[in-house]
């Protein structure tokens, strides 16, 4: 009996490792497409991605996998496994049950479509040509709707999508959380707009050498503890991080000549994602648990590093001199002015360049549009108009073109509906983790002020990173902070920070 | 009956396309490893490469494939197929029969080993540390010997390896061809050494800006007709070209600060390989016929562009001004002096930097060492000494270290034993093709002198490139030149060129 279980476990682990290898290969193919693959190779590459995805999908949903999971998933057997194997079996079972509902052909069609669509989105964005992208988006929405039907609806249709990125999260919960957040942030934003202490920002908009920007980005990544022997920094239209294995976690950024901090904060953001995956514990390597536990927790790390650390006063007390050195004569202002400048709050068009506060409004807009698509049947053709209306309503500004409007984000071209809420969840998790971190590392801000960031990385690795998918988001939040997710921490963090900056 | 054949053909084409997709994915993984993948990701990447290779191997040797090939390969059925399908079936049958003899586990072991070994070779070369690489090489030789035993020996053991790169080529034939070549080239090299008209070369060895080198390399690639929407130029330790699909054929080069032509001729060489694969006809795309027909024919194209065109007098009469412009004040010599300088013949240590004439001696050395390994059981531990002895004997010089000696080439780390002779075959094919090209495009050198290189690319595409693997090397040579391969053309080409330069 024990021998049978051992054999089943061995075979299951082997299959799981093979699936993980397919994921690694696919991640390389996607990374390559996004960092300069030649245009004319896209069609053939999409075929290859389709073939590999199908095979990974086939392995995940094979009868053999089903049998193994049924055997290993029996109450008694599961109880006899060690923690890692137990979790690996239950996660695989969940994935199996979910994927089993999708016909392989439909999955392949979806994979090929979304991998092509991303290139077409890139082109459409460059040419500000929504019409050329619309048919692809229509088809992606159509297939996503088919997936929802096949997987079954529990609550609203959109809930089925949310579950992919934040297991268990519902539209009802999000409505409440986002409602609460909005009710606190809107008055704060109004008070800020009315303040007579507006930061100066003009000095941030000069012509900044790209080479020097890159040099400083690399320098800060090293300070954060990013391991360059296990990663690299490249450029892409839309910055991203991708973990092929903990030994190879890559990030990309995008340099703007007229903005000294856009690429930098993008790099710190992606660097936060990368630290997470570079520091997953060795025993999980080569298994499908070797990944972030949810998009929300992942975003908590990117946004923690970008905002909580990277936009803090102590951080710039330490590093502003280093930045000034790289742009001689261009940043001759007091550090306090710089600190206030990079924390200016004002409505803007581009999500990834938004301040910490209004950022959440960008997310709420996307959340509402996605709900409207899947719960109310809104069409792709209607999106530019709805987008612009919502920007007018929530932020008081209207995009002058679709490039700075509905075409700005890569997500929908890849079919990632349900992902956006993760960003605001990430802000909330980050604020809550920070409170615990400040308690457990009482000299936190002194360390940041000295440029000694490694204890922070160590604490996060110890508490969060090493676990990969070994725990669920809610388990991690509970274990680390001693209580469930509570949006009040984010509100408090923002109020404290911005009342100081705007002297409210 | 017809319907059954059609069904079998359809399924076979589908399988073949899937196999081709695996090849594309693998090529991306290898390209990535060679162009800057982080060191710590190598182990995991090798696993992924192993998984994908195994699956491609499994598909190639599956019972289903065997059945389909048996059915489609019947004399009558084969005769009823169109040219492409006929060739695709017979090539796949050959591959099937060959691969079927290798146990999948052994193949996987080999693939994982060689993909790791390449990274270890790179490190060993950088540190001039042969001892660290030797165990890998031993293991590769051992596995290669097992493959030879499994595949069976016809002639000498080394013949089994040669067949992988130049189908049908034997050690006996090569001994004769290389013997003949050596008997003509050695006296020519002696006469050259004794000439009182030695080219000046010191001016080629200054400090040349890498950015300007890159700029000129890109410019020349464009002139050759390399399509940058279907390719890209990167850097790697060992320059290479890789065709993922005709829409994505990538090349790499390596810049030396103190040598203005090393990267350039490397780029032209790889560019020649790339032109071949960018111009394979559309009907072959997505099949395993979409590839060069042999390494020898492939090398004929790289070496044609590098030497016959790129080291010709008319080429530099057109382009020397362009080069001078990019290095102001560094190349103030007459074009004739430059032409003679880049065609200097002298014994040297590094194959890829050798002149056209002594290059063949580098190949003969590797050929003899490979023969000794597989036909006479010479061990990996003995190679540095044998290498150095042969360099002393054939070229009169001894490498001061293994980095410039036995560690210089990537090939053995990837298990590519039997590849090297292709380079000299390439030289011979190139000379023979050139003779026909000069006849069919009588104003060839006038066009080169005007920088009008596209008619050359068109002629080569028409005669060679578009065919992919649709014809064998000997079929191509016979069709294009009207006769079988004859090494006399290379001898004549070299004699004519170098008697002029050295005024013999």
From TrEMBL, chains A, B:
One BP annotation, GO: proteolysis
Record bears the keyword Zinc: yes
Keyword Metal-binding annotated: yes
Protein EC: 3.4.17.19
Cofactor: Zn(2+)
Signal peptide (residue range): none
Record field: catalytic activity: Release of a C-terminal amino acid with broad specificity, except for -Pro
Known function: Broad specificity carboxypetidase that releases amino acids sequentially from the C-terminus, including neutral, aromatic, polar and basic residues.
Record protein name field: Metal-dependent carboxypeptidase
Organism: Paenibacillus roseus
